[in-house]
Amino acid sequence: MLAAMPPTPPSTPNQGEARIRDRGDACPGALRLHPADDGRLARLRLPAGLLTAGQVEVLAAAAEDLGDGRISVTSRGNTELRGLGEGCGAELGARLADAGLLPSPAHERVRNVVASPAAGLDGLGGGDVQLWARELDALLCAREWTAALSGRFLFVLDDGRGDVTGLGGDVTLIAAGPSAVGDAFLYLGGQAFRIAAADAPHAALAAADAFLTAAREAGNGAWRVRELPEDVRPDLADALRRAGIAAEAVGAAEAVGGTQGTGDAEAVGDAEAVRPTEALGTPGRSGGAGPLPGVIGQGGRDGRWAVAVAVPLGRLTSGQLRALAPAHGGELRLTPWRGAVVTGFPDRAAAGERLAVLAAHGLITDPHSPWLGVGACTGRPGCGKALADVRADAVPGRAGLPVHFSGCERRCGHPTGPDGTWVDVVATTDGSYLVDGAPTPRTSLTEAVATARTTR
Ligand code: SF4
Fold first, then answer.
1. Which atom of ligand 1 is nearest to the CA of 269?
2. Residues 353 and 403 occupy one common structural domain
3. Are 422 and 403 in contact (CB under 8 A)?
4. Of 41, 74, 412, 429, which is best to mutate to test ligand 1, by the most ligand atoms within 8 angstroms of its C-beta?
5. Do 177 and 308 fall within a single domain?
6. Per the record, where are the segments of Gly residues compositional bias (predicted)?
7. Whole domain around residue 423: which residue ranges?
8. Best substitution site from 383, 404, 409 to test ligand 1's pocket, by max atoms within 8 Å of Cβ?
9. Does 377 contact ligand 1 (Cβ within 6 A)?
C-alpha cells in the first residue's frame, strides 16, 4: 500500500546557481592522485562505506607501504591515503584492483553513494538501503554513460530514519516507513516521485541520466544538480518512463527542500567527525547523525550484532583500521560522520569484547566523549594553504554541538548543516583563531570552544 505523504524531503542542492565551468573535473581519485604538500593524495570511493576484512588489510598495508601509514575517512564515508610517493600510482591501483576495490577503473570516481550505515542492523528504518547501495554501484559500473558523472555527484540512500537525507545528495532515495514497506521516494532537483522499493536502484540511475541530459542541454559544465541554470530542469518523469519504472509524482513543491546541506564538502584532505546529537529516526534538516558509539542491538536482517565507533579527527592509523576488520562474515561500514560500524557479531558479548578492543586502540567508543563531533581539516603540514597545524591545536572543549577546526577560510570538510548548528574555528594569520568569528588566542581555545558548543 502506498503511503499518503512523502517523508520530509532532503535538503536539495540550491537551484539557480548556474555558472559556466570551463575546466574538467579535477576531483582526486584512486587512479588520479592529487599533489599535496605532504606527497600525493589518493581518494578511494567506497559505496556505502563498505569494506570487507580482506579489503581492510589491503588498505592498511597500502597506507603503510606507500603512504604515511594513515587512512582518512571523508564526509562521504570514503577514504584517503596521503603522503604517497610520486611513482606509486600504478602499484596502488593494482593492489586496490586485486582487492576488488576498483570494479571499474573508468567509474572509480563516480561511485559516490552514501547510505544509512545502520540500515538492516537495528530494526529501525523502512528498508535495507545497504542492499540498494550494492545494486546501484553495480549498475553504475556496468554502464559506459555513467562515467560522465562528475566525481562530486552524490547519491544518498536513506532507510527512512532521516540520518543521511541532509547530506545534500543530487539524487536521494528514501525508503518509506513501516506503514508503507515496499515503497520508496526518489528526489532530484525539486522533483519527488513515489516508486516501488524494488525499483529504487534503477530509479536512481534513471535520475542520473535525467541530470546528464539536462547538463548537456545547459552546456555549462554542471557537475551537480544545483549548478544547472534555473531554466533547465531534468526531466525525471521521462527518464523513469524510459527506464520502465512506474512512478507517481508527489509533493514536488515540498521536495525543493531546505537551503543547507550542499554536500559539496568532500574537499581534498578534509576530515571531521560530527557529534551525533540527533536521535536515530529523526528526519534531519542538517547533516543528520550517525549511530552513537556502542553496541547496536540485535534486530537486523540476520539477527546478529554490530558495534559503532567514531574516529578521532577522522584519521585512522593502519593499526586502528585493522582493529576494525570484520569477522564472522561481517563487514565494515565507514560513515559520513567519520565513524565506523562493524557488523556480524553472533551475540552481545562478542560485540562488547570488540568494543573494548577498539577503545584500547584509541577509537571513540563512549557516547558521551567530548571528542565526539570534533573535526579538523588537514591543516599544516599537509596543506599548503594552512595557517596552522589545526589537528595539533584541536581541543574538545565540552560535549555539545559539532566543532570544526579549519586552517584557512575554505573550511574544508566542515559539518553539513546551517550556520549555528556547528561551531566554526578558523586559524588566522597572526597565530590565533576565530571562534564563531570572535578573535581567540590559541591558549584560550579550550574555554572558548567549550562555551560555544554548549550555550546555543
Ligand atoms: S587549510 Fe584551508 S585549504 Fe587546507 S585543508 Fe584546511 S580548510 Fe582546506
1. 5
2. no
3. yes
4. 412
5. no
6. 284-296
7. 374-454
8. 383
9. yes
Note whether 295 and 204 are same-domain residues: no
Q: CATH number, domain at 303?
A: 3.90.480.10
Q: From the CA of 412, how far away is ligand 1's center (Å)? A: 5
What pLDDT is stored for residue 3 in this prediction?
Answer: 40
Query: In this structure, are 250 and 136 located in the same domain?
Result: yes
Strands 438-440 and 433-435: antiparallel
DSSP string, 354-413: HHHHHHHTT-B--TT-TTTTEEE---TTT-TT-SS-HHHH----SSSS-EEEESSTT-TT
- Ligand 1 center–CA 223 separation, angstroms: 22
- 41 in any annotated domain: yes
Residue 34 near ligand 1, beta carbon < 6 Å: no
Nearest to 154 by CA among 51, 213, 100, 227: 227
Question: Probe ligand 1: pick from 37, 410, 428, max atoms within 8 Å of CB?
Answer: 410
Residues 247 and 184 reside in one and the same domain: yes
Looking up residue 244, the CATH number of its domain turns out to be 3.30.413.10
Residue 249 forms beta bridges with which residues?
193
Residue 387 Cα to ligand 1 middle (Å): 9
- Whether 159 and 174 share a structural domain: yes
Residue 226 lies in a domain: yes
Q: How far is ligand 1, taken at its centre, from the CA of residue 242, in Å? A: 43
Q: Which of residues 256, 280, 311 is at a domain's end?
A: 256
The number of the ligand 1 atom at minimal distance from the alpha carbon of 268 is 5
Quick: pLDDT tens for 340-359: 999 999 999 999 999 999 99
User: Residue 126 has what pLDDT?
Assistant: 83
Q: Is the CB of 385 under 6 A from ligand 1?
A: yes
Q: List the grid coordinates of 358.
A: 577498539
134 in the same domain as 98: no
CA distance linking residue 315 with residue 313, whole number of Å: 6
Residue 44 belongs to some domain of the structure: yes
**pLDDT tens-digit readout, 17-61:** 445 466 677 789 999 999 999 999 999 999 999 999 999 999 999
Residue 382 CA, ligand 1 centroid: distance in Å: 9
Q: Is 382 in the pocket of ligand 1 (CB under 6 A)?
A: no
Ligand 1 within 6 A of CB of 407: yes
User: Does residue 406 lie within any of the structural domains?
Assistant: yes
Q: What is the number of domains present in the chain?
A: 3
Are residues 145 and 223 both part of a single domain? yes
Per-residue pLDDT tens digits for 279-298: 222 223 345 678 999 999 87
Q: Which residues contact 303 (CB under 8 A, 6 or more apart)?
A: none
Where would I find the H helices in 200-277?
200-218, 236-242
